[in-house]
Design brief:
An eight-stranded mixed β-sheet has the order 1-8-7-3-4-5-6-2. It has an eight-stranded parallel beta barrel with strand order 9-10-11-12-13-14-15-16, surrounded by four helices. The relative contact order is 0.11. Helix 3 packs across helix 4, helix 11 packs parallel to helix 13 and helix 13 crosses helix 14. The protein is built from 22 helices and 16 strands. Helix 19 links the parallel strand 15 and strand 16. The two termini are 30 Å apart. It has three domains: 123 residues, Phosphohistidine domain (Glucose Oxidase, domain 1); 109 residues, Enzyme I, Chain A, domain 2; 294 residues, Alpha-Beta Barrel (TIM Barrel).
Length: 591
């Protein structure tokens, strides 16, 4: 006898792509871990290795199809992600260890590959850094694809859709996401995943409402069951009642109307009703991202990540290669400024041709500016390229993961030496180039008063600052509740940085995820941030929230928030105030 499903069962996960969707669930089951261990005879080893190579070849063909699909995307990032997955097919640990296991343990290819994937999970288990976690996920996604091909599983479910559905899965790879039919998939929800996963980033860029990190959604949702997905709050309503359906249908209409209204804000000032102005900039990876930034009214680039130039290649980019990309970005955004962050690799981002030998804790190891100061040739090459680009527009240079004055001064010594080289060779550059740091370590926040005397600007990278202050991997769905931008310690750290910037007379910006959430707008205004940088798609939403805010009210609110002892109490009070003040922006979550 079938148990009746309870109406209005609520799940809350990590909201990664905004929007509201109402529809029936399509539950995606993939049988990759159900085949039993099969022992083989010594003479069968060659056949199993051949089966593995055939499955890898088929996986390559499938990913190349996805790579061609990625070329239709307006930005290069999807293609770079799939390029990385293609490279993983040749990964020594994934392929060679699987072959070694077949030969040593005399087991079938499926079992050997599953054991390799298990070892990879264990290898990364102790690392609490979100980007390394996503590196593990990328290997896992590729491994699962090979497994499906080994067992002969052919997935037609997503290709044969005749009606619109909400996709429910344990996890989705970036390749899965790129192949989703936006006309058929209203939204997706997953057990696993984090806010900065490649899948989440693609969902936002494709405009698909999405919630990840729900842990048990695949166990609680039945095939065809009605669902409501609120990608702005992270809430899933399972089997909604008639009242819930009506309520969310109205919210959906209001959200879509608000999206249309945002276009009218594009050329209006980004300021509060009482005149406090913020500069809203865009976080970009490449010149191909500029049209979207301009469309949404970005006043320059508040963070240009340079890592993409170094990825998916066997040798580092030359000075001229880097210069051409930086020049294109700077000229395209002129007269607005472009803030270029020097190479940020190591614990959080791995680049194949850069040999970082195994470290017990890479997140706290040789990464970002520490790596650059060790690899002086690579560092100076990048500095030369950035300086040369500064002759074509307004460039601001930022050093990542600074922990103290010594590192900053060491960076400036290299910069000064490169300036002298360019002067000697009569190559033009801006000698008054602004130099700043990304504040993302607790020590930088504590030393903000001293650091502010030696830089032209601060840019707060909240993603890492929150993780390092709270010692939590926000990409881990089991720890997501501990990752809290409103934790009292975080608010006080941000207050220290903003006060130091104000005393020194330098601008203080923010380029982390916190800068893109309208819920925090009053807090950021009251703290005294002068610039916010975010994904281009978030700019108009933040401008809308800012234009409804008041500086005097924000200051009073922050004073109250700083008296509360826990992040939960701060969040509850903030949400209550914002829902009361801006019901059109923050409808109450109760149904």
């Amino acid at each position: 006898m079938k148990t009746e499903v309870t109406h209005d069962q609520l799940l809350v996960g990590i909201a990664v792509s905004p929007g509201i969707a109402i529809g029936r669930a399509l539950l995606l089951h993939r049988p990759t871990d159900i085949s039993p261990v099969r022992e083989i005879a010594r003479e069968e080893v060659a056949d199993e290795i051949q089966r593995l190579h055939a499955a890898i070849a088929l996986s390559r063909q499938q990913l190349e199809v996805v790579r061609r699909k990625a070329e239709e995307h307006p930005t290069p990032e999807p293609g770079l992600i799939i390029d990385a997955h293609l490279l993983i097919l040749d990964d020594i640990m994934l392929v060679s260890e699987t072959i070694a296991t077949i030969e040593k343990d005399l087991v079938d290819a499926e079992t050997a590959l599953r054991r390799t994937l298990l070892r990879i999970r264990h290898l990364f288990a102790a690392i609490e850094d979100e980007y390394l976690r996503e590196r593990r996920s990328d290997v896992e996604f590729v491994g699962q694809r090979i497994l499906r091909n080994l067992i002969g599983y052919q997935e037609h479910l997503l290709q044969e859709l005749t009606e619109q559905v909400i996709l429910v899965a344990h996890d989705l790879s970036p390749a899965d996401t790129l192949l989703l039919d936006r006309n058929k998939i209203l939204a997706f929800v997953t057990d696993a995943g984090g806010r900065t996963s490649h899948t989440a980033i693609l969902a936002r860029s494709m405009g698909i409402p999405a919630i990840v990190g729900l842990e048990s959604v695949t166990q609680l949702v039945q095939q065809g069951l009605p669902l409501i997905v609120d990608g702005s709050t992270g809430m899933v309503v399972i089997h909604p009642s008639a009242d819930s359906f009506r309520d969310y249908l109205l919210r959906k209409q209001q959200y879509e109307y608000a999206e249309q209204e945002l276009e009218l804000l594009r050329d209006l000032p980004a300021q509060t009703t009482d005149g406090y102005e913020l500069i809203l900039r865009a976080n970009l990876d490449a010149p191909a991202d500029i049209p979207q930034a301009r469309k949404n009214g970005a006043c320059g680039v508040g963070l240009m990540r340079t890592e993409f130039l170094f990825m998916n290649r066997t040798v580092p980019p030359t000075e001229d290669e880097q210069f051409r990309i930086y020049q294109e970005m700077v000229e395209a955004m002129a007269p607005a400024s472009v803030m270029i962050r020097t190479l940020d690799v190591g614990g959080d981002k791995l680049v194949d041709h850069i040999n970082l030998e195994g470290e017990a804790n890479p997140a706290l190891g040789l990464r970002a500016i520490r790596f650059s100061l060790k690899e002086e040739v690579l560092f100076r090459t990048q500095l030369r390229a950035i300086l040369r680009a500064s002759a074509f527009g307004q460039v601001r240079l930022a050093f990542p993961m600074i922990t103290g004055i010594e590192e900053l001064r060491a960076c400036r010594l290299h910069l000064r030496a490169v300036m002298e080289e360019l002067t000697a060779s009569q190559q033009p550059f801006d000698p008054k180039l602004q130099v700043g740091i990304v504040v993302e370590t607790p020590s930088a926040a504590l030393l903000a008063g001293l650091l502010a005397r030696e830089v032209d600007f601060f840019s707060v990278g909240t993603n890492d600052l929150i993780q390092y202050c709270l010692a939590v991997d926000r990409g881990n769905e089991h720890l997501a509740y501990l990752y809290d931008p409103l934790h009292p310690a975080i608010l006080r750290a941000l207050q220290l940085v903003c006060e130091a910037g104000r005393r020194a007379g330098i601008p203080v910006g923010m380029c982390g995820e916190m800068a893109s959430d309208p819920l925090y707008i009053d807090v950021l205004v009251a703290l005294g941030f002068t610039e916010l940088s975010m994904s281009p798609n978030d700019i108009l939403w933040m401008k809308r929230a800012l234009r409804l805010s008041r500086k005097d009210r924000s200051d009073a609110l922050l004073t109250t928030l700083l008296t509360l002892p826990t992040g939960a109490e701060i969040r509850h009070h903030l949400e209550e105030v914002m829902q009361t003040s801006f019901p059109e922006l923050f409808p109450p979550p109760e149904i």
